[in-house]
Amino acid sequence: MDTCIICNDDIQNGNKTVELREKGSIGINNASRERGDTIVTRTGQLVHEHCRRSYVNPNVIKGLKRKFTSPAPLATPPTLRVEQICIERNDKWATEVKGRIEFAQDLHTVYAIYHSSCSTNFRTGKNVPHLFSLKTDKSQIKRGRPNTNNQHFLKVLDFLEDNDDEQLTTKDLVLCGDEAYRQPYMKQKVQEHYGTSILITELNGKENVVTFRQTASTIIHNFYKESKLNKSDEDSKLFFIKTAAALIKTEIRSMPVDKNFYPSNNDILSHEKKIPESLAVFLKVLFSEKDASLTGHHASNKTKTCN
């Protein structure tokens, strides 16, 4: 059986295929090196068209790099995401992964690691990559046309979580998902998946900007969990500072914004009216009341603008 070298699925599974020319083959091979994968293609080889587009997508590659080079956000427990995917897959591989999670309890604490290609395949409903598969059980290979829309949506969720600090819109998510869903339905699906932890609104003239809404309770819970780990005094100090910053940032994000109103000089000097209480307390420790007020307004506006 001929397979697509990118997804390892049957090349004749009903999805549109494309024959690689020299430029296309070079593009996939370059993307493979950037991803840290071992995929090598040649001119004339057949691959699924949507697999090729997704694999060489620079935004997706950028997101994967950020995942393994940047610290995870304080309120993004990976175990919950993996457990949800296990439920959605409901197959042998999902059962094995769920068993490992239940044994470890906290993936972050035990320093759980995984191959990039395995993570991608698991989250997008594909099989174990041949490179890491002990044996190929043909009875476990799903037949018929796969639900590509669900696969694209899982890819969108990964991309969104890896790039939360950017001003992504529902239009960006539609493009990342190879336009499997239109914008209104993409917005609905994202809201259904994340519930109250996601915020979709207009920001700086952009419509439908998607951001995660951290809550104070999740940050404090994560702080309590992390504080049990053995850390050096320097690491503990930095962790305290980052937690305080996360709490202040969360309160700033939750403040209503009226773009048609600009505060008066008196309002600016009266930090109680426009600055979150947590930020005001923090700045009072560092500056005089007047300096704290001006600095607080600048910090609040900068945070709302950049997030």
Describe it for me?
- The structure is a single chain.
- The chain is mainly alpha-helical and 307 residues long.
- It has three domains: 17-56, no CATH class; 69-134 and 147-212, no CATH class; 224-306, no CATH class.
- The protein is built from 15 helices and four strands.
- The strands form two sheets. It has a two-stranded antiparallel ribbon with strand order 1-2.
- Helix 4 packs antiparallel against helix 5.
- The N and C termini lie far apart (48 Å).
- Mean pLDDT is 72; it is low at 70-77 and 135-146.
What is the topology, as strand order, of the major beta sheet? Answer: 1-2
Q: Tell me the strand percentage band.
A: 5-15%
Helix count from the secondary structure assignment? 15
What is the rounded distance between the termini?
A: 48 Å
Task: Tell me the domain tally.
Answer: 3
Inertia-based shape: globular
The assigned structural class equals mainly alpha
For the largest beta-sheet, the strand count, sense and barrel status come to: 2 strands, antiparallel
Give the key terms.
3 domains; globular; mainly alpha; about 55% helix; two-stranded antiparallel sheet; two-stranded antiparallel ribbon; about 300 residues
How do the strands and helices of this protein lay out in sequence?
Blueprint: E1 17-19, H1 22-35, E2 46-48, H2 49-56, H3 58-69, H4 78-89, H5 92-104, H6 116-123, H7 148-162, H8 170-176, H9 183-194, E3 198-203, E4 206-212, H10 216-227, H11 233-253, H12 265-269, H13 271-274, H14 277-286, H15 289-306
Antiparallel strand pairs: 1-2, 3-4
Helix pairs in contact: 3-7, 4-5, 8-9, 10-11, 14-15
